[in-house]
Design goal:
Length: 314
């Protein structure tokens, strides 16, 4: 009888064994979930404090008149009207659009071509990548001030090179015809290293069999680039184009340190005009109104661009 009881009790003990591992597994999953949500809450708090709150605050300031000392006063669209009536308003937008177009020709195409050249090299590739990326590691203010000496009409490096070639020197930053182009050159030199490395990483992911097949078909270098390289890197090219436009539309450091918006407002950008309104004219509402305009323009452009290129990037 005792044997019968033990045989009946044995299955009950074996059936109760998995409960322990199940509880420990569920506790472990709960702990992992809480840890993940904890890290997520930290990131959300950082975004809320340093990204979302300034955006909301700027949107409110665009409709207010305040000096951050007294009480704020709601003024409706007066800040927008005042900014739009400024003679420098139209020049700032035209200069920003022109700077963006020139920067696309230089800062978008040149890094891609440089990445193609580096990808074709077999020797000293690591050293050349370091050389190309070196300007990115310099603080922007240092790089801009370095070019300020390059552009000096007297002992500047660029004019000295022109004199060696028996060419007349240029007033790089003091002429309305060359000032904006000078800013584009500085911006391209400072930022092309990041774009080059991104393009180089995309090029190295292209299968070598595609190039071999193109060579067997008799395709030269330019045909391989057009029919293999560009289609295989289309997605990163589209993304980088969008980021390039957004970044160049917010140009500020170059006109602020090199030209101060001159000569004759030839290098005043929208963001630099925002700075003038906020910290020179003590009109924080006017600066915020300009910021809202720029943000809306970039939002509309990004939405249209993503809509147009949605099928092309697949």
């Amino acid at each position: 009888m005792t044997t019968t009881i033990l045989r009946k009790a044995a299955p009950r003990r074996s059936s109760s064994h998995p409960a322990g591992p199940r509880r420990s597994a569920s506790r472990h999953s709960v702990r992992r979930g809480l840890s993940a949500y904890g890290f997520l809450c930290g990131a959300l708090i950082c975004f809320a404090v340093f990204s979302w709150y300034p955006i909301v605050r700027e949107a409110l300031l665009g409709f207010q008149k305040t000096n951050f000392v007294g009480r704020s006063e709601w003024v409706g669209l007066d800040n927008f009207r005042r900014v739009a009536d400024d003679p420098a308003f139209g020049s700032a937008w035209l200069n920003t659009l022109e700077f963006t177009g020139l920067a696309l020709l230089c800062g978008y195409v040149l890094p891609f071509l440089t990445a193609i050249v580096l990808n074709e090299l077999r020797h000293a590739r690591a050293y050349l990548r370091f050389v190309v990326y070196l300007p990115v590691m310099l603080p922007p203010a240092v790089a801009v001030l370095l070019f300020k000496w390059f552009y000096d009409p007297g002992p500047g490096l660029f004019n000295q090179v022109l004199h060696l070639a028996h060419l007349p020197g240029l007033n790089w930053l003091d002429s309305t015809s060359t000032a904006l182009l000078s800013l584009v050159i500085v911006s391209t030199w400072m930022n092309m290293g990041s774009g080059t490395l991104i393009y180089l990483a995309a090029l190295q992911s292209v299968q070598s069999e595609l190039y071999e097949a193109a060579e067997l078909d008799g395709a030269g270098l330019f045909r391989r680039i057009w029919h293999v390289t560009i289609p295989q890197t289309r997605l990163i090219l589209l993304v980088m184009l969008l980021l390039q436009v957004i970044a160049t539309m917010q140009v500020f450091v170059e006109p602020y340190l090199l030209t101060g918006g001159g000569p004759q407002d030839a290098t005043v950008s929208v963001v630099y005009l925002m700075y003038l309104y906020a910290f020179r004219f003590n009109s924080y509402g006017g600066g915020s109104a300009l910021g809202l305009m720029l943000m809306l323009v970039l939002m509309v452009f990004s939405a249209v661009y993503l809509r147009v290129t949605r099928d092309g990037g697949r």
